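Q: What would this chain look like folded?
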Amino acid sequence: PFSRSWINDAEICCLSQGATVRVEYGDATTTIDPTGAHAVAQAFPRTYGQRLVTFLAPDDTAGAGKAVDERPPIRVGVVFSGRQSPGGHNVVWGLHDALKAYNPHSILYGFIGGTEGLFANKTLEITDDVLASYKNQGGFDLLGRSIDQIRSSKQVSAAMTTCQNLNLDGLVIVGGVTSNSDAAQLAETLVQKNCKTKVVGVPVSLNGDLKNQFVETTVGFDTVCKVNSQLISNVCLDAISAGKYYYFVRLMGRKASHVALECALQSHPNMLIMGEEVALSKLTLMEVINKICDGVQARAELGKHHGVLLIPEGLIESIPEMYALIQEISILHNNNVPVTEIPTQVSPWAAALFQFLPPFIRREVLHFQQSFFAYCYDISF
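A: My prediction, written as structure tokens:
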């Protein structure tokens, strides 16, 4: 948050009332953990410590009511980066309307194909006609997405070149934690290079894992939880109607269990396994399995042979012993060890755990390491 300004509900009301707002500066930004302030300050010497900005209703006595034609037109680019989430199109819609309200001659460019389109300067001018079919629609298909990163020196340089060629006043990066981290780094680089483009990160993520005192929740999190909760409730009704099935529902959210927890609060399943609790308690894979079995047995003793269990998709990564196994295999992959030899070169305890896993999960671990190590998504329970 030190490289951009977050907006609360009161400020949104101010922004929605007109094209002009009054700015009030507050305290300097800092880190949540004071022990990390020095490291962050070193990594972001020019953008760390900027003062917080609060948007207020315009003060007419201060000349805020300047005529529209007296305001200079603004050129802004917007790029989708990260996992698609509800609300992305509405961010573009709101940005377009705000720019046109400020000055009808302002231009909004959308980068086609995500960050790859940003690097290649592949743009689409956003107009009312372009937006007509995408307002209030989910997904990122208006512009699309690609590798979802602006990280290497070559990528940052390409992004800056595009901003300079288009003479952009601002670049809006729509995405989650990683995308906003890249936005912060890009903002620092543009300041260092004296590029006039201002970088703004918009927290759009279904994971709900980008929250602090300035961000109540991410765009899309509420929609995802409500839609999933409705589906889970339907499954719960089916389970209690049949009276003989257990449903395991794996929910999106990567390693964070925010979506799973919110859906559990709304739909009331019989059990929720939270990745954070598993990691904090340092539970083993067998202990997690035993907890599930104990719950099933307890319900059976009450004559209930059905139920619904919610599991976050990144649960496997939260189990310490599984995470350690994944790290060992990842190191061997990076050292170009053949897949067939990996099981024999891991540590003894890792080999024992690997042999304990069902054969189809062993194959997932060994042959789909890229997706598995990055997200731990593709294991089916």
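The mean pLDDT is 86.
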